[in-house]
Design goal:
mainly beta, 14-stranded antiparallel barrel, Porin
Length: about 280
């Protein structure tokens, strides 16, 4: 058990900045990450910023989860949007035995643009600047408990996301999103580059209360792609259900939104299920 735990801690510690968590937010979790296309403020704040161009309201979204149901992997996020602009803050840390082994913080600033519109079609674009900060904990020290360990330092990086979306008759959506298309890393302790994720999304709204979404996601340099499929159905004005599937690896997800409160879960092919709770306020 200690050997498995050590492997998990090491893998998380060395991949937090070098990888991205694609299921941030209750909606993305419930739909297995199939949120590149569509028309939802949470997806615009935390994922494809092109979706921000339709919004002018003031919205605050906050959420919390323990990744894979593990208490030592807390993930929290908060997002604010107003007048096609958005701010997002995310923090994930590795905690064990009362000590923080590592902590990653992301702060993003995004803007959505309307490139073209007529009676039947709309073309959107969005940009996001991400600022990353990575803090390492202390070494074990001579006592083995970190009480007299050495501070292992910090690191900073930045990246730019870009997204596009085309909409026809407010029913058909096609989107393209690139995460970290341009990156900069301060120093060399965090590696040479941040990962680039490419996503293509297709959504269809047969009628107002139902949306089906398909995503193809790939990490730059990888030969494998992930296929994601999500469904969102509004049963009534204040109650929405969601579900999703993903291949490579195979995962299943689901959740609901009742008023301003959302809950969702997503399985994992090896580790336990991740549960996500969120609250949203609209003004």
């Amino acid at each position: 058990m200690k050997y498995i735990l050590s492997l998990i801690l090491m893998s998380i510690s060395f991949t937090q900045v070098f990888s991205s968590y694609d299921y941030l937010g209750s909606r993305a979790t419930a739909m297995s990450g199939a949120v590149t296309s569509g028309d939802h403020i949470e997806s615009g704040i935390f994922h494809n910023p092109a979706q921000l161009s339709n919004y002018s309201d003031f919205t605050i979204i906050s959420g919390y989860s323990n990744l894979y149901g593990l208490d030592f992997l807390p993930l929290s996020h908060i997002g604010i949007s107003i007048n096609n602009y958005a701010l997002n803050f995310e923090n994930i840390s590795t905690k064990y035995g009362g000590n923080t082994l590592s902590s990653e913080t992301t702060f993003g600033i995004a803007k959505g643009f309307e490139l073209y519109s007529d009676r039947q079609s709309l073309i959107q674009m969005g940009l996001r600047l991400n600022l990353y900060n990575y803090e390492f904990g202390q070494s074990a020290g001579t006592q083995g408990d970190g009480s007299n360990g050495v501070n292992l330092g910090t690191g900073n990086a930045s990246g730019i996301d870009i997204g596009f979306q085309g909409i026809l008759n407010k029913k058909y959506y096609i989107a393209y999103y690139i995460k970290n298309i341009s990156t900069y890393i301060e120093g060399s302790n965090l590696g040479e580059s941040l990962p680039k994720n490419f996503s293509i999304g297709l959504s269809y709204l047969p009628y107002k209360d139902l949306i089906t979404s398909l995503d193809i996601n790939q990490i730059s340099g990888s030969l494998d792609s992930e296929i994601r499929f999500g469904i969102e159905y509004k049963l009534m004005e204040s109650f929405t259900i969601r579900t999703g599937l993903q291949s490579n690896p195979n995962r299943f997800s689901g959740g609901f939104e009742f008023g301003n409160i959302s809950y969702s879960f997503i399985t994992h092919h090896v580790l336990p299920t991740t549960h996500q709770f969120s609250i949203a306020l609209n003004f």
